[in-house]
## 1
Amino acid sequence: MGSMEKQEQFEQRKPRFLCLHGFRTSGEIMKKQIHKWPESVLNKMDLVFVDASFPAEGKSDVEGIFDPPYFEWFQFNKEFSEYRNFDECLAYIEDCMIKHGPIDGFVGFSQGAILSAALPGLQAKGIALKKVPKIKFLIIIGGAKFKSSSVAEMAYSSPIDCVSLHFLGETDFLKPHGIKLLESFVNPVTIHHPKGHTVPRLDEKSLELMLSFLDRIQKKLSVDEPSSIEEEEMTAV
């Protein structure tokens, strides 16, 4: 095998993200939403799309726009302060991370974004994701904090030192909550877009920010995890 072929075989892997979709949608729907982004962005990520833990228990807001089936990560009351099946949801996400690993981070939208933003804190406290490596990267689209004090105390009590990118929509009903969420993160990167509660297309400025963020995490991944060819050379010494 030539050195070029060997280099290609052991090329540094892309960051792998588990994608957590919105309430009463699906992994397939999120795939369609994310694929509005250009190839220059998509080619820098290894994206894994999964359906949430439970079939939708009620009508989906995307009915008539996207085909069923629809799923939800957990259930909640009207005030979003009490949750049902939350522990089962966390266990399910961990199983997905083991099955599709190594997972470096999450891309979350809506209910999936709220979950994604809380998971590093819950992991750091030993509440969730105990069997998988530390979450390194987050892309949060239309996110917010959990309102339940028991979850919030565990998720946000310490600054979240996780490389993160946050999309804030100008007319998104969750925008004020998304801004509040930023306070819990160390050096978050933000992309503002003119749309509402949606996965937005990328304009020139947001594309530049996105590519810069992806280059940054690729470098971090390369430092944290030397490529196989480097490991092989070190072993041979």
## 2
Amino acid sequence: MGQTLCICSRGSITIDNKRYYFIQKLDEGGFSYVDLVEGVQDGRFYALKRILCHDREGRQEAQTEVEMHRLFSHPNILGLAGHTFIERGGKSEAWILLPYVQKGSLWSVLEKLRDKGSFMPERRILKVLQGICSGLKAMHDRGYAHRDLKPTNVLLEEDDRPLLMDLGSMNRSRMEVKGTREAMTVQDWAAQRCTISYRAPELFNVESHCVIDDRTDIWSLGCVLYSMMFLEGPYDMVFQKGDSVALAVQNPVTIPQPCRSLTPTLSQLPSLSPTGQSVPWLVNS
């Protein structure tokens, strides 16, 4: 692992012995920042994700995110360009260098369509959906689940090729819960790491003896498909109104009328998702 030196007066950084110029800030979260940087040698743009690690557990979580990026080399999973950990002012920061996708997230595309009073054509929906499924299948085949699939965690290349990103919530796809204490641990973890309006029902009230597996991603996938069809997730308004998403997910979703078709795809999902077979079916459709 290369050593990061510092942010210099000229606004440059060094990661893995390669220099990058700071261009501008892109995003800011609770414990992380994303900056746009340019490689001095190759002239390419990258997204530099800086994660503040407040303790040993935070550092380990950042290390896990790095390892998840390293684990996959797939056209529908965002790759890793470089990384390092630095110590500044007695605190640790994880710096993760990722390819920059100018078009932005699937959510930003949906917002633009909504602002224009337009919709995403069904052929385009299916193309994006198939790419997301392909990325998920690669994760599931390796025994991992994404756990936080949502439109803001899907980037779109210029040709609409989707890239799954933000792998910080990924873990082994099969989690066997034994006892009330383990159930509460999983439930608390899900509350912190799995976005509420895309979270599977079994993660709201985790049973004391159960198995959580990659079908949580299938639920989230359905919510993402819904958002592409109707430009908002099925539980986004429930959350925004302050109503209980945990209660809402227990009831069938009401499909807005008139409904844009995609009927063949949607009619297959309910029968397939309980068995965990939706992803390979959709990839091969």
